[in-house]
Amino acid sequence: MKKITVLSGKGGVGKSSIAGSLAVLLAKKHEVICADCDVDASNLGLVLGLKEKDFEEWERISTNEKAVLDEKKCNGCKKCVESCYFKAIKWNKEKKQPVFDSLICEGCGACEIVCPENAIILEKVQNAKIGFGKTKYGFGIVSGQLEMGESGSGKVVAEVRKLAEKKGKGAEIMVIDAAAGIGCPVIASVVGSDFVIGVTEPTPSGLSDLKRALQMTEHFGIGCGIVINKHDLNPKFTKRIEAFAKENGLEVLAKIPYEKAFVEALINLVPIIEFKSETKKFFEEIIGKLPKD
Ligand code: SF4
Ligand code: SF4
Fold first, then answer.
1. When comparing pLDDT for 186 and 77, which is higher?
2. Which atom of ligand 2 is least distant from the CA of 76?
3. Cβ(91) to ligand 2 under 6 A?
């Protein structure tokens, strides 16, 4: 299965809209499965017309552990309080026992190690979910969501990709919608991809963030191309992005003009390619420039 990851150095440049429309067009000739790996702000399902309730199944998963106290075993030595780098353990003076703040606890296990009475155990917390749904365009999508304030987004991405492999068994192409930026969930989305499409817009921050994202793909030795969205809003800067691409041997796969219909398509839960057929040519251009093998 060929894996194509769509990423952007910064949010709001139209990455998920482009990933969704690419999947719809690719699915006209190939078996496709989508993996929504933007687990902190997943919306590829919405782009493809699927609300959360439209997914066939959701499974709760755990990406983290939290420290829990067995009060009966605690001797009040206070060693755990000193061991917590994250300051997740407060001291209850009246009870002479520690109090664990689960919102701050990172599950590092230091307190468990120092406790002489084995009064602390690390318990798994179900803080994320992954789900599978079928789009009306004939292909499936796996999506992941990490609960607010929780850590472990890279692990959720790994689970989303595993389920996408399973649900998309026999598919020829997996379209992966990565998170914006270059953090852990993006790395987990990019690793093992065959090609990366970097979406950017012609602004200084768009270019500098794209450069950082592409450095990461270079590190993994993955081929990459660039899509410049809203290119006509800043022709001068578009030229700079094109010059950057040329200098670095990267192909500009397509330049998409500013299109109000992108927002209208999102509001109507329809991929832009279906909402405004004139945009099809941009996605055909991208697909035409993808590596053939
Ligand atoms: S597991 Fe780590 S972060 Fe959590 S309370 Fe213990 S020492 Fe602190
Ligand atoms: S280290 Fe263990 S025994 Fe000591 S205060 Fe903490 S939980 Fe209680």
1. 77
2. 5
3. no
